[in-house]
Amino acid sequence: MSRAPLLAAVLVLCAAGAANAAVPGYREAPHFTNSAAARCPPPLPASDADAACSPHAAVHVAMTLDASYLRGTMAAVLSVLRHASCPESIHFHFIASAAAGSPQAAELRDTVRASFPSLAFRVYPFADEARVAGLISTSIRGALDRPLNYARSYLASTLPACVRRVVYLDSDVVLTDDIASLAATPLPGEAAVAAPEYCGANFTAYFTPGFWASPALSAAFADRRACYFNTGVMVLDLARWRRAGYTAQIEEWMELQKRVRIYELGSLPPFLLVFAGRIAAVDHRWNQHGLGGDNYRGLCRGLHAGAVSLLHWSGKGKPWDRIDAGRPCPLDAVWAKYDLLRPAAGIESS
To answer: By the 8 A CB rule, do 228 and 276 touch?
Structure first.
């Protein structure tokens, strides 16, 4: 077996192993209702039937769903609902690594439903998972090499065609503001992506010296002011994405990476190659990222200067792991307020 198919098989088996992990128990979240002052559309039905195309869906949110990061996803959903002006009019789209109809996919769906009985959501199998595994090159951290980490590049083909605009969120975030404000971000012209940009970051560090030494490769950024942006919080216009064929463009860079090493950091660099310098700006308050530290040690970090609407534990250190290990960082206490994990038997609060 050649190296590429072998790597694809290993990645799919690792995803299957994660899918087979036991799903812990979670508490039921409080029920949040639409605000009368916000002039919300009617509540979406609380069923697994597809309400994604309902005209009453005020905001669409897409996230991944698997056993490894389920605890983070549950906290993120709770934070979205708690701070939304129209929580009953939000539709969640969860992309799962398990195959459609498998016991694991059903268990994940049932876990979400048990904690959020009135939530409008649908779970989609990541149909492109095996093919994506064959395109992935190993990066600096194993968690970045999971095929599901690339699902954000396939939302346009996974979600129903009626879904035009969606907010994509990583599983390691919590919101402290109304997601409707983020979802309403203007996308002028043909912009398909909106996200906070960080033009002070060292953009050259996201690609190898060989990339920058090649005039043919580095010319990809010749006609634009390319800045780093974090792909864990984005507003996407899926109709424009589909028209432009952006998924195919991302895959072309991934295929090149298999032949020539041009980057080291998972799913981010292909996104930067296609979109950096071509996105709509979002206020930095909507992605206070880096709270998980770097990709090696996951040390504690503080907030960037400015207002905060969303906290993002990007990096190696996840708040639930640090809390369980008895070594939380100061800001992990903010995340803990949204943690729905049911305490182990014998330590339930009375």
So the answer is: yes
Instruction: Give me the amino acid identity at 102.
Output: S
Question: Which distant-in-sequence residues (6+ apart) come within 8 Å of 215 by Cβ?
Answer: none
**Token pair for 46:** 């609380």
Q: Classify 175 as helix, strand or coil.
A: strand
For residue 2, give the 3-state DSSP assignment.
coil
Question: For 316, which DSSP code?
Answer: S
Q: What is the C-alpha to C-alpha distance for residues 87 and 201, in angstroms, rounded to an integer?
A: 35
User: CB under 8 Å, gap of 24 or more: what pairs does 78-83 form?
Assistant: 78/29, 78/338, 78/340, 79/173, 79/174, 79/175, 79/176, 79/338, 80/169, 80/175, 80/179, 81/29, 81/32, 81/116, 81/119, 82/30, 82/32, 82/338, 83/175, 83/176, 83/177, 83/178, 83/179
* DSSP state, residue 207: S
- In this structure, what are the phi and psi dihedrals at residue 193, rounded to the nearest 5 degrees? -135, 140
Cβ contacts of 39 within 8 Å, gap of 6 or more: none
What secondary structure does DSSP assign to 132-143, as a single string?
HHHH----SSGG
Closest CA to 27 of 341, 346, 345: 341
Q: What percentage of residues in the chain have a pLDDT greater than 70?
A: 87
Task: Count the Cβ atoms, other than its own, within 10 Å of residue 68.
Answer: 18
Backbone angles phi, psi at 237, to 5 degrees: -95, 100
Task: Tell me the C-alpha distance between 307 and 284, whole Å.
Answer: 8
19-33, 142-156, 205-219: the lowest-pLDDT one: 19-33
How far, in Å, are 43, 76, 125, 132, 262 from residue 72 at the CA level?
25, 6, 19, 24, 31
19: Cα separation from own chain's centroid: 18
pTM of the model: 0.90
β-pairing verdict for 90-96 and 59-65: parallel
Dist CA 238 CA 240 (whole Å)? 5
Q: Exposed (0-12), middle (13-18) or buried (19+): which is 350, by Cβ within 10 Å?
A: exposed
To the nearest 10°, the Cα dihedral for 14, 68, 320, 124? 140
